[in-house]
């Protein structure tokens, strides 16, 4: 709570804080403020004894001295009210009435009050000087000016504070020395004398301090204090007796005594607290009568007090006017208090329709936060995000196209590897054929005479003619015979001797078989395999016997069919004539050089040798018959005849010999099948069969046979099979079954021939196995449609959003899942789960458990292949079933029903709630508040305000006097309603605070229900009216008590007693008017007691005071003011009803 002078220490205070402070101060006025509800008088500076100006007097001192007060600048005052001034002291703006009361409390203490006030001013000035960095004198002037302006602006508050300060300051003196102030046990005259003396001393001392020793003021204060001090004990004695009679201890007012019978002091205290509480409610409060408060705190036991209030209210006169005015303002007060109370709960929502939607959204969020809702949310999250058709289609199409591409790549890779091995298979298959060859015929002998030397048979013959291009082997791969002849020939032993190879001469290289040649087993087997003329063994070695094969190939080459290294047969080229001649001349020149050298070495002149002899010697050497020149020379010379020998001419003969053509496979079965189908084929089938037969022949003619031989290589066979497959596919597409049949026969035959090669069989088996994996991606299968693409652009042809539609059904799903990648499988499972969940979800996003179970049964075959997805969906179904319990609760009903705010209110606040439902209500509202705090508070306000409006509506144009009580009964009329409401309020943010305020409001409104209704208690009413007419009521006693209280207050207050004297004079001036209303004074007094809060503590206190005591005199002063207000009301006429 802020201190009394805190506003002086604030350099800058928010403007918004000013209004609440003023409002609070005005709503809690002082006890004596009603005495000063008149325009303040001006004050002027007073000359001090020291010659300087001193502070102008305010409050009671100003009233006594009659000095005028200087008004505050209205512009500064208006600026302060608008919050434009942050430092009121510096700006010269007065403080509020709270500051005025505080200043009056300090200044009103007798004698020492001004000194205490001066010390406080100096302390505040010192703090401000430190804070603002200014000088102390400047700040002291500001603080003193602030206090002066505050006192001037609020004279009523200042006087009330000074009076209270006087009483509070004198109380310790009275308690310490009661006899000195006339409060002892002495006789009345003695106590009056003592009280007069003490009052005069105290009044004079206080006036002297406040006037800086001014004699006139000091004498005036002493006189007034002495006079009022003398009157105090006498008036106090009379008041004490009157109070006891009024409070049932006396015997003067039987009606009040009967009405308060059985009411304890504790009940009065509780009633006082309830009335104070009702007046302090936000919105201006609600005024309660004493009888209403007593009935509220006692549970309706103060029925006689209610009857008394009813009689007073219905009997006319001033008492009836007071009561009726009191009641007339109640509907408006209840309306204001209700509005203010509802604002404390939440600001009003101006869109009730939208509030219904907001409440439902908050309820749905609350349901989602329950354990069952969290379980469902977790199950939904585990199911994965929503997957649309296009999202799933894009992923599935891309992934499955990738799978197909990988399978095709794998198949191609394996096929390339396998068929490469098949193409390199050995040529182990031979096909017999016949070839035309030439062999030497019978020679033609012609007898003749020679003019030159003649030679016998067996003598080496002369040089042969130079070989022609057809007879020689030209550039390119070296034939087998030339290769052997160039490298020393084959030794003439074993099977070689049975052949004619020693006569097989290779021009420029010698005979293929010769004496001194190299052995087949020891040399030529490994050399020829390494050179590529023969295939190595299966293990890559060269251990097998090649003798027969070697001799056969050499004999074939001798007949004109050369053999070349494997794989280079087709690269052999025919030699040119120039090359043959060059090689021959080179060999001949070398032979001549060797012969000449050897002849010279043995003493023979080469020029002496006959050309014929030389010719033969060179012929023997060139042919390899006698590699050694001297040996050849000796053989030629030894073979000379003495007589001429006949001329012998050799001949050649052509004949057909069998031959074997080797290759990798035998296409004969396929050719036979083509021939068989061709014999009966008709129409375009015959052309296709003929084309197939041509595909089984080589593209070029064989150099030996001069015709296109059947294909025997694996590569050509594979190509031919591919062409056959294409023709069959085309026929299938055209629907030509005859063509398909006639082409399938040779295709099977060709396939069977190719598979005789182990490498081809392995390659075909692997290709078929890999093709089986690709089979789901071909044709019109689901996967085939999904991955189909344009062969030219590589663009996928199936729209991605239609892809999931091709995977409907268990078979399609099974085939897809068998080939799917993890990503594709996840997309398919996500789409399947999304389809099932969305099919069971309504437009608000709520899953229908029945539809979910039905959808899962319909997709059971597909879900059986996806156990994880099935498990997740089953978890969602189980969690959704568990949510049914929550949906049946108030929170669930708000979340699932139509978004209508009234429906939400009916779910949370039913008019007839079931027993023990408060915990459910607390849970529901707590869930709403956790999600949307403001919406939850607005919902509660909507409920309370709607009931309030219904309960307080006018009846036939007349405001309902019992609307507040009806509202309280409607919202917590029974115990369960109360528990439900409290549970709902406590569940709100700051709920305990809101509940406290609401409970105070409802308790007040419930108390208004005890207002007595006009009944027909004729006898009781007549008795009460009789007592009132006799005047035996407490009105006169109350007036005397008020006067006594004013006198006693002046006696102990010194200068403040002047105000009491003024009041006393006013009371005496109205005595004649009060006497005119004698008949109704008791009713008015009762009305005041029943409607004025200040009567209760005085009644409780006066009843406890001893007769004629000092305390009774002080309390009598208070009652004097209470009575004065009643008199003023009577003179001035009816006042406006409080709103």
Topology:
Elements: H1 18-27, E1 46-47, E2 53-54, H2 59-65, H3 74-81, H4 88-91, H5 97-107, H6 113-132, H7 136-153, H8 155-176, H9 188-210, H10 215-246, H11 254-259, H12 265-279, H13 290-298, H14 303-314, H15 317-328, H16 330-345, H17 352-369, H18 371-383, H19 389-423, E3 429-446, E4 454-455, H20 480-486, E5 490-491, E6 505-506, E7 510-511, E8 513-514, H21 520-531, H22 547-558, H23 577-601, H24 611-623, H25 629-638, E9 640-641, E10 647-663, H26 668-680, H27 684-695, H28 714-734, H29 737-754, H30 758-774, H31 782-787, H32 810-819, H33 822-839, H34 849-858, H35 860-864, H36 867-888, H37 890-896, H38 901-908, H39 918-931, H40 933-951, H41 963-972, H42 975-986, H43 991-1008, H44 1018-1029, H45 1035-1053, H46 1057-1069, H47 1071-1076, H48 1081-1091, H49 1095-1102, H50 1110-1132
Parallel strand pairs: 5-8
Antiparallel strand pairs: 1-2, 3-10, 4-9, 6-7
Helix pairs in contact: 5-6, 5-7, 5-8, 6-7, 9-10, 9-45, 10-45, 10-50, 12-13, 12-43, 13-14, 13-43, 14-15, 15-48, 16-40, 16-43, 17-18, 17-37, 17-38, 17-39, 17-40, 18-36, 19-30, 19-33, 23-24, 24-25, 26-27, 26-29, 27-29, 28-29, 34-36, 36-37, 37-38, 38-40, 39-40, 39-42, 40-41, 41-43, 42-43, 45-46, ...
């Amino acid at each position: 709570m802020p201190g009394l002078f805190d506003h002086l220490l604030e350099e800058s205070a928010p403007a918004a804080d000013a209004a609440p402070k003023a409002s609070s101060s005005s709503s809690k006025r002082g006890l004596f403020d009603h005495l000063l509800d008149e325009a303040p008088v001006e004050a002027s500076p007073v000359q001090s004894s020291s010659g300087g100006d001193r502070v102008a007097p305010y409050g009671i001192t100003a009233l006594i001295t009659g000095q005028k007060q200087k008004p505050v600048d209205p512009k500064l005052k208006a600026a302060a009210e608008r919050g434009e001034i942050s430092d009121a002291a510096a700006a010269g703006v007065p403080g509020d009435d709270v500051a005025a009361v505080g200043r009056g409390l300090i200044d009103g203490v007798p004698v020492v009050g001004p000194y205490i006030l001066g010390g406080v001013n100096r302390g505040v000035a010192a703090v401000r000087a430190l804070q603002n960095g200014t000088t102390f004198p400047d700040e002291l002037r500001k603080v003193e000016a602030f206090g002066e302006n505050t006192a001037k602006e609020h004279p009523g508050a200042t006087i009330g504070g000074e009076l209270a300060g006087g009483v509070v300051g004198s109380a310790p003196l009275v308690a310490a020395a009661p006899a000195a102030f006339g409060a002892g046990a002495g006789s009345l005259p003695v106590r009056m004398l003592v009280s007069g003396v003490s009052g005069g001393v105290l009044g004079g001392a206080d006036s002297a301090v406040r006037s800086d020793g001014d004699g006139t003021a000091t004498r005036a204060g002493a006189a007034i204090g002495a006079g009022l001090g003398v009157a105090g004990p006498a008036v106090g004695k009379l008041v004490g007796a009157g109070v006891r009679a009024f409070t049932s201890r006396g015997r003067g007012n039987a009606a009040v005594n009967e009405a308060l019978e059985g009411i304890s002091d504790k009940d009065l205290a509780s009633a006082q607290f309830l009335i104070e509480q009702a007046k302090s409610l936000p919105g201006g409060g609600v005024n309660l009568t004493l009888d209403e408060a007593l009935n509220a705190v006692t549970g309706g036991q103060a029925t006689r007090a209610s009857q008394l209030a009813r009689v007073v209210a219905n009997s006319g006169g001033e008492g009836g006017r007071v009561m009726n005015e009191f009641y007339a303002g109640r509907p408006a007060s209840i309306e204001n208090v209700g509005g203010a109370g509802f604002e404390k709960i939440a600001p009003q929502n101006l869109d009730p329709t939208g509030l219904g939607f907001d409440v439902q959204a908050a309820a749905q969020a609350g349901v989602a936060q329950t354990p069952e809702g969290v379980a469902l949310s977790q199950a939904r999250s585990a199911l994965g995000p929503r997957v649309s058709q296009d999202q799933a289609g894009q992923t599935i199409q891309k992934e499955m196209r990738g799978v197909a591409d990988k399978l095709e790549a794998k198949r191609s890779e394996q096929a390339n590897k396998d068929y490469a091995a098949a193409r390199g298979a050995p040529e182990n298959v031979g096909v017999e054929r016949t070839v035309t060859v030439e062999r030497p015929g019978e020679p033609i002998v012609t007898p003749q005479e020679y003019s030159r030397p003649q030679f016998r048979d067996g003598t080496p013959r002369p040089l042969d003619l130079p070989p022609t291009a057809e007879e020689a082997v030209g550039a390119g791969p070296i034939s087998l015979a030339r290769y052997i002849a160039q490298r020393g020939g084959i030794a003439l032993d074993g099977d070689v001797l049975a052949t004619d190879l020693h006569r097989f001469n290779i021009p420029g290289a010698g005979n293929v078989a010769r004496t001194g040649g190299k052995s087949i087993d020891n040399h030529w087997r490994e050399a020829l395999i390494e050179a590529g003329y023969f295939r190595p063994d299966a293990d890559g070695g060269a251990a097998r016997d090649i003798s027969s094969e070697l001799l056969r190939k050499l004999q074939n080459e001798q007949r004109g069919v050369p053999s070349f290294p494997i794989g280079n047969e087709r690269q052999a080229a025919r030699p040119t004539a120039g090359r043959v001649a060059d090689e021959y001349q080179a060999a001949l020149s070398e032979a001549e050089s060797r012969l000449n050298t050897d002849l010279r070495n043995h003493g023979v002149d080469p020029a002496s040798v006959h050309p014929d002899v030389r010719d033969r010697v060179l012929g023997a050497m060139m042919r390899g018959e006698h590699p050694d020149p001297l040996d050849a020379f000796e053989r030629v010379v030894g073979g000379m005849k003495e007589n001429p020998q006949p001329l012998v001419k050799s001949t050649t003969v052509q004949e057909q010999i069998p031959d074997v053509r080797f290759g990798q496979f035998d296409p004969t079965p396929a050719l036979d099948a083509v021939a068989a189908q061709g014999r009966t084929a008709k129409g375009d089938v015959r052309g296709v069969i003929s084309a197939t037969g041509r595909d089984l022949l080589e593209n070029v003619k064989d150099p030996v046979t001069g015709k296109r031989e059947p294909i025997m290589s694996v590569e050509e066979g594979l190509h031919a099979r591919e062409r056959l497959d294409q023709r069959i596919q085309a026929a299938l597409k055209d629907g030509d079954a005859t063509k398909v049949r006639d082409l399938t026969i040779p295709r099977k035959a060709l396939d069977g021939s190719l598979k005789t090669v182990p490498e081809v069989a392995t390659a075909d088996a692997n290709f078929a196995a890999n093709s089986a994996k690709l089979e789901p991606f071909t044709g019109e299968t689901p996967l085939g449609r999904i991955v189909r693409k344009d062969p030219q652009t590589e663009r996928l042809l199936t729209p991605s959003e239609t892809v999931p539609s091709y995977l409907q059904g268990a078979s399609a799903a099974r085939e897809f899942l068998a080939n799917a990648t993890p990503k594709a499988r996840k997309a398919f499972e996500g789409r399947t789960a999304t389809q099932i969940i969305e099919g069971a979800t309504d437009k608000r996003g709520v899953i229908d458990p029945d539809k979910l179970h039905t959808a899962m049964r319909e997709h059971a075959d597909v879900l059986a292949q996806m156990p994880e997805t099935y498990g997740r969906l089953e978890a969602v179904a189980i969690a959704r079933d568990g949510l049914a319990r929550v949906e049946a609760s108030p929170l669930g009903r708000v979340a699932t029903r139509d978004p209508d705010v009234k429906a939400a209110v009916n779910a949370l606040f039913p008019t007839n709630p079931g027993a023990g439902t408060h915990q459910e209500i607390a849970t529901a509202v707590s869930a709403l508040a956790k999600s949307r705090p403001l919406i939850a508070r607005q919902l509660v306000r909507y409920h309370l305000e709607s009931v309030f409006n219904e309960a307080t509506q006018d009846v036939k144009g007349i405001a309902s006097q019992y609307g507040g009580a009806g509202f309280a009964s409607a919202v917590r009329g029974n115990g369960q309603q109360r528990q439900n409401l409290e549970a709902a309020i406590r569940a709100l943010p700051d709920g305990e605070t809101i509940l406290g305020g609401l409970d105070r409001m409802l308790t007040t409104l419930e108390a208004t229900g005890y207002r007595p209704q006009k009944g027909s208690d004729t006898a009781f009413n007549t008795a009460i009216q009789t007592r009132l007419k006799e005047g035996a009521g407490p009105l006169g006693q109350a007036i005397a008590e008020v006067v006594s209280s004013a006198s006693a207050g002046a006696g102990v207050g010194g200068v403040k007693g002047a105000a009491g004297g003024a009041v006393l004079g006013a009371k005496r001036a109205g005595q004649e008017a009060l006497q005119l209303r004698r008949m109704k004074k008791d009713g008015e007094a009762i009305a005041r007691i029943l409607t004025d809060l200040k009567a209760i503590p005085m009644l409780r206190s006066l009843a406890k005071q001893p007769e004629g005591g000092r305390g009774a005199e002080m309390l009598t002063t208070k009652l004097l003011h209470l009575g004065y207000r009643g008199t003023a009301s009577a003179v001035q006429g009816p006042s406006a009803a409080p709103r």
